[in-house]
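Q: Got a minute? One more chain.
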Amino acid sequence: MKKITYILTGLFLFVAVNGVKAQASQDCNIKYNLFKGDATSGKYAAAKQNLEYLLTNCPKLSVNIYKYGSKVAEKTKDPVLAKRIYEARLVNFPNKKAAKAHSDYATYLIKNKLASDQEVFEILKKAYAISPKDMGVKNIFRYFKAVTEKNKDTNPQMVFDTYDDVMESVEEKLDDYNKKVSLLQEKDSLGTISAKEKRNLKAYTINSTSLGQVEGGLDAMISILATCERLIPIYSRDFEANKTNGVWLKRAVSRMYNKECQTDPLFEKLANAYAKTTQSADAYNFLAGVLAKNGDNRGAAEMRKKAFNLETDPIKKAKFKLKEAQGTSGSRARALAYEALKYNPSYGKAYLFIASLYQKSANSCGSDEFEKRMVYVAALNKALKAQRVDPGSGAGRYISSYRKNVPSKKLIFQKGKASGGSHKIGCWIGETVRIP
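A: Always. Here it is, folded:
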């Protein structure tokens, strides 16, 4: 009889406990739906009441509790709640976009002046350690600026390493936006774009433009620090320890190339080691430059072909073609840039390169001031095209510069021309453009 009593008691407790759990789960779902509805419709005070219940009783129900909750905390101006949401999210959903959570919280603290620069830096440091590419655009720049200020005199290598990590993330994001913008622009031109896609196109364009500005800002900061005089001793010192480290070699070769330090023997040493270690398309492309510098043009051409054929990503193929274009000038350089555009039609930097070729030829492709300034019109057209197809290309500063140099209304009148008419630019450019 006792045995039967124990069994019945246990069964009763099991049913009771599970009934309580089911009721609690049901309550959580009801509260969550009410909270989400209020939060998405802007009823933040009402949402806050159910948010408190969810944080206490259902913290693992959904990551959206924290996504919407952070907005509720901001809109109701409750920094204590904001901190609680930030910390609870990382405890309950540590693997769901934690870098973005750190970055967003840092933005909140900055916006509301609730933390010191050092406190913000420590949060951004956590975000960076997890995933630089998931940080907010402004916070990427903010973090790198802080690292530069702290280490430029004592540990420049750390600044270079941070720059490389950040730039790789920025370029990855830019390439992703480039693909998305290109696809949606095509749909937009055909009239097949949906309202949601239209909104996405606008968002991608804004984000891409912001990233392009960050890229320019990072380059401006690193250019002051990363001179040949500083790079060569550092890379010479660290070469033996890193001569089989593909990542280190790639970054060293790239930085030496970008800073035009190729004339130093160290560049050839680095390029050879990079090619030997990785046997990658990128490495062979740098090695082609070394061969060309040494007068082996045939060997350089074969090496470029090898690198190009080895690469399968059309975006990277486009970058190889542009790099080859940057090693020459005039019509040959333009032809190579257009080849790059065949592989990536939205490659804004290829259009900007063509624009720079035109700008450099302004004095030689015109016999008077009007004709010379019309070359800037051609350059401006290419820069505007770059901005259109690739918002993250950083075309804005080029557009501003070229616009300042197009012919004025007075000059056009003095030349006996009319705005809106056509003008063919001479010499190797040979393009017909519209008079502004």
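A: The mean pLDDT is 89.
Q: Perfect, thanks.
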